[in-house]
Amino acid sequence: MRSLLSTGVSRLLIDGKLVEGADGVFATVNPATEDVLGYAANANAADLEAAVEAARTAFDRTGWSREPTFRARCLEQLRTALQAHIEELRALTIAEVGAPAMLTSGPQLEGPIADLGYAAGLAETYHWETDLGIAEPMGIKTHRVLRREPIGVVGAITPWNFPHQINLAKLGSALAAGNTVVLKPAPDTPWCAAAVAAIIAEETDIPAGVVNIVTSADHELGALLTTDQRVDMISFTGSTTTGRSVLTGAATNLKKAFLELGGKSAFIVLDDADIAAACSVAAFSVCVHAGQGCALTTRLLVPRAAYDQAVQATAATMGTIVPGDPTDPRTVCGPLISQRQRARVERYLDIARTEGGRIVIGGGRPAEHERGFFVEPTLIADIADTATVAREEIFGPVLVIIPYDSDDDAVRIANDSPYGLSGAVWGTDTDRIRRVTDGVRTGTLSVNGGVWYCADAPFGGYKQSGIGREMGVLGFEEYLETKLVATAG
Ligand code: NAD
């Protein structure tokens, strides 16, 4: 793969070939500098049509779905090839996503590449058949075998915030399970996906049509994928609002829709915790990647008696986090992805002020950056847990601090949300921690700083944060159908 940073223009991957987009190209922008990085192929409906047809043909007419050992080898090959290009990919990811360099050794790049090895392992070791033994339903002696099979053509639609993590988690599980894929990445980060496309085409034995990657400036392509009758499943990660449209589109032929959506997760500090230390962790984590993480804990719940101390400790830590150049290895908080995203965050800050919130720290653009879509780490206090900024996903480095009166009250506030994606609890007493973790209705929970992100750990949401789980065995099984074969005798 020749680095996109030097060639300046990326292509689509359709039926094994790297091709230009029928609608020309669109610009991809460095969010830290606002400079145009280069151009991505702009696919239209005809390109999508060709991609879906290629995926359908590869699924129906090749042995891909029946060759798990070959699939495992291809995924290992992909992992090795991506690893061989790691420094080019790192530079590209920092430039296109505005991802702080430090995150590229984890979930922004190296983590998801390594996790392809886990997916490859599953293809080889998974028990595709379970013998349910003999039974005599309705008096007929029958031997029952449960088989797991790939679903077919998967339409994967992804966001821009952790593009490699999400693109590769979907590709890894879907391919390991034996499906073929059409991936439509977000218009803000086409090159991250296009770089993977080039490596698949040029450096792996993944057969033509098994993976198709269509970049486009037009969100409509995602919508078309959801309604396409030849697609058997949609694997979507993005906002809850778009998730609803995806579900409606998928309903046209009742295809399976697997949804990873938004969040407004709570960080609960129990009164037996080291309040200052816990608040400092909460302040730090909401600033990571400028708050552009679905699972970040954006509501900080603290005991009312320790509220002032908690506000002070949180603000003190936020004050030390200076939004900076993402290429600097010390940067934690880079830019937001786009002008549109920054305008969205600033609109929420205005709403907070209108609703009577107190901006304890931050609330504007950092003076030291003339260019780039930066926003200051911001703490909002003295606002009701029912306020807009305490309920809606902001997707910026913005934390809302809310007092609670008892452990039960903390759980009540945490659960008083349409979302249920993640959360954190800090405390000392293990019984109390157990009661709180039992009570919070959410897909992942961190206790005293524990990390749930791992290849073998399923991730996903309760309530309007999603349907299904990504990663781990459960994530892999999302991409499987179940067939029961009952043989008499
Ligand atoms: P988004 O919903 O705007 O877009 C996501 C993808 O959907 C993009 O590829 C977009 O082009 C496509 N799309 C837009 N309209 C569509 C439609 N009508 N039908 C089909 N596809 C359509 O989200 P975003 O702004 O790119 O990403 C941020 C959101 O993603 C946040 O809400 C965040 O919480 C969520 N997210 C969730 C997870 C998770 O695992 N739960 C992970 C990362 C991001």
Can you give a write-up of this model?
It is a single chain. This protein has 489 residues and is of the alpha/beta class. It contains 16 helices and 22 strands. It has 2 domains: 274 residues, Aldehyde Dehydrogenase, Chain A, domain 1; 190 residues, Aldehyde Dehydrogenase, Chain A, domain 2 (3-Layer(aba) Sandwich). Helices cover 38% and strands 21% of the residues. The strands form 6 sheets. The chain has a 7-stranded mixed β-sheet, sandwiched between helices. It has a 6-stranded mixed β-sheet with strand order 9-8-7-10-11-21, sandwiched between helices. It is globular and about 70 Å long. The chain starts with a helix and ends with a strand. Nicotinamide-adenine-dinucleotide (NAD) binds next to α8 and α9. Nicotinamide-adenine-dinucleotide binds next to α8 and α9.
Task: Describe what is shown at a glance.
This protein is an alpha/beta fold and 489 residues long. It has helices spanning 4-7, 45-61, 68-84, 86-97, 110-125, 163-176, 190-203, 220-227, 240-250, 275-287, 307-320, 339-354, 388-391, 407-415, 430-439, 472-477; strands at 12-14, 17-19, 25-29, 36-41, 129-135, 142-150, 153-157, 180-184, 211-213, 233-237, 256-260, 265-269, 297-303, 358-361, 378-381, 398-404, 419-420, 423-426, 446-447, 462-463, 466-467, 480-488.
What is the molecular shape? globular
Runs in which pLDDT lies below 50 for 5 or more consecutive residues are none
**What count of domains describes the coordinates?**
2
Quick one: CATH superfamily of the largest domain? Aldehyde Dehydrogenase, Chain A, domain 1
N-to-C CA distance: 56 Å
CATH architecture of the largest domain: 3-Layer(aba) Sandwich
Binned strand content: 15-25%
